[in-house]
Amino acid sequence: MSTPPPNRRRDAVEKTRAIERAATDLVLEHGYEAVTVDMICELAGVSQRTFFNHFKTKDAALLGVDPPTVDERAARAFIVSTGPLLAGAAQLIRVDPGGLDADPQQLARRIRAIGSNPMLITRQLERIEAVESEVREILVLRLKNQYPDEDPAERERQAGLIVSLVAGLMRFIGRSWATEAAAGRIPDVDPAAIERLLHQVLPKLG
């Protein structure tokens, strides 16, 4: 099987980033509803055909083409660990910010653009929810490994509850990103800081 020449791959990456930046800049300037694919193409200097070769919709240009996934290496370590369940489960979900992740300022602008529209926030959260069933299966394995004497049905119920808590935690993180970006600060979600916050809050829920 032949592979595309390096220059062609590099050109594709550059066009992807140009489209993403154009979509982000336009949404921040005009608002999500006012932005069209034609406007994105004009600012990015690409044709509509090129745009649709890279992205199916303008939403995809903002959210990224790659949906959230489960970090397989982290999952293997999590299953055999005895560390915090909730914080550990949340860290299994990997959200790839796309080509802009190499530029923190652009990443901050992108998060700000997503956070500017409730529908975009909802769609990003829906993408995260798509991996919830996989996270639930991993949690069942972790609970089985750590608490082998528990009833399997009870493990399933516990895994379901933890997944729901993870979803809430991810919403909190996403809105925190949007708030930081809207204030002109570069979003920085430190897993250790989230874990410390959980340690502060969870005992108060009992």
TrEMBL record:
UniProt cross-references to InterPro entries, sorted A to Z: DNA-bd_HTH_TetR-type_CS, Homeodomain-like_sf, HTH-type_TetR-like_transc_reg, HTH_TetR
The protein, known as: TetR/AcrR family transcriptional regulator
Coiled coil (UniProt feature): none
Organism: Microbacterium invictum
Residue span(s) of domain HTH tetR-type: 13-73
Keyword hit for Lipid biosynthesis: no
DNA-binding region: 36-55
Pfam annotation, one family: TetR_N
PANTHER family linked: HTH-TYPE TRANSCRIPTIONAL REGULATOR RUTR, MYCOFACTOCIN BIOSYNTHESIS TRANSCRIPTIONAL REGULATOR MFTR-RELATED
Keyword Membrane recorded: no
Keywords: DNA-binding, Transcription, Transcription regulation
